[in-house]
Amino acid sequence: MEPDQHDDFPVARILLPKALRVPVGVIYHVARTLDDIADEGDWSAEERHLRLADFRAGLDAVAGGRLAPVHPALFAKLAKVMYQCRLPLQPFYDLVSAFEQDIGTTRYTDRYELLDFCRRSANPIGHLMLHLIDAATPENLADSDAICTALQLITFLQDVPADWRRGRIYIPQADRERAQVSDAQIAAGRVDDAWRALMAHEVAQARALMLSGAPLALRVPGRFGLELCSVVHGGLRMLEIIERGGYDVFRARPRLAAADWAVVLMRTGAMWLSRRVGAGVPSIESNNA
Questions:
Q1: Exposure winner among 22, 59, 199, 216, fewest CB in 10 A?
Q2: Alpha carbon distance 101, 183 (integer Å)
Q3: pTM
Q4: Sorting pLDDT into bands at 50, 70 and 90, what band is 41?
Q5: Dihedral in degrees, nearest 10, Cα atoms 36, 37, 43, 45
Q6: 5-274: what fold?
Q7: DSSP of 239-284
């Protein structure tokens, strides 16, 4: 689980209003620090849990207006942003909960378990962004959840081999059993009809979520809304790349190349100008968008 996963998508952070760049930077710094605790280095699982407990104590200190016992500079910045932008702390607690789970949970029984994980691992960032722009309405939060969860699921599909090397599989067990794809097949990186059927199902699920949340980008005004359009189309384009590669994510991790960025930019502009999620734009491959 990587909180900077959106770097795989054309998120034009330069589009962010200047006033948001510092608080957004602090939010991502917090998420990056949590990721380092949970995944980087040679610490044991017990040591990682202890460090996350310390991080939770830091959040408690921010909530109580006290000096944090760990990462004092980071928590001082966070406290300042929380006060100035009136941000809730619960999304940060949710992130800690997700990273704690990620240390020991290596399999997900079904989609419901996985979506609950995404609710805490991905959706908090979207909630914080909406609070930053004073747009955290129930409708906006629901659409943000759909976009953020879709991005998380797309990252899981990109990272099947890397996650396997860490001992994790994020594709739900129920889906894999229906498609008759075993752990051994993932370990071998074998792409056959069963694997393609499984991945087609997972891609369709992620695409449906992304499209369901996409109207948020047209409700949010200004440059933030334009950036959201690029996030939506970056995610959708990544799904196309996975499909175009025959669902083989083992030989090379799917990424957006320069040509893909051009497609995303065209589609972003078309969506923003037409005010329609499904605005058709010819791609540079001479296919319809």
A1: 22
A2: 21
A3: 0.91
A4: confident
A5: -130
A6: Farnesyl Diphosphate Synthase (1.10.600)
A7: HHHHHHTTT--SSS-----HHHHHHHHHHHHHHHHHT-TT-----T
Report how far residue 34's alpha carbon sits from residue 71's, in angstroms, rounded to the nearest whole number.
Answer: 11
Query: What per-residue confidence (pLDDT) applies to 20?
Result: 85
Crossing angle for the helix pair 138-158 and 222-244, to the nearest 10 degrees: 30
CA distance linking residue 76 with residue 35, whole number of Å: 19
Helix ranges (DSSP H) in 88-192 = 90-104, 111-121, 123-132, 138-158, 160-165, 173-179, 183-188
What does the DSSP assignment read for 81-111? Answer: HHHHHT--SHHHHHHHHHHHHHHH----SSH
Average pLDDT, the chain: 91
Q: Is 166 exposed, middle or buried, given 0-12, 13-18 or 19+ CB atoms closer than 10 A? A: exposed
Side chain identity at residue 175, one-letter code: D
The residue type of 182 is S
CB count in 10 Å sphere of residue 278? 11
Whole-number pLDDT of residue 153 = 98
- Would you say residue 50 has pLDDT above 80? yes
31-69 CB burial, b ≥16 within 10 A, e <16: bebbbebbeeeeeeeeebbebbeebbebbebbeeeeebe
Whether the Cβ atoms of residue 2 and residue 31 lie closer than 8 Å to each other: no
Give the SS3 label for residue 2.
Answer: coil
Would you list the domain boundaries of the chain?
5-274
Match 């695409």 to its residue by tokens.
207
**6 DSSP assignment:** G
Place of tokens 């990462």: 71
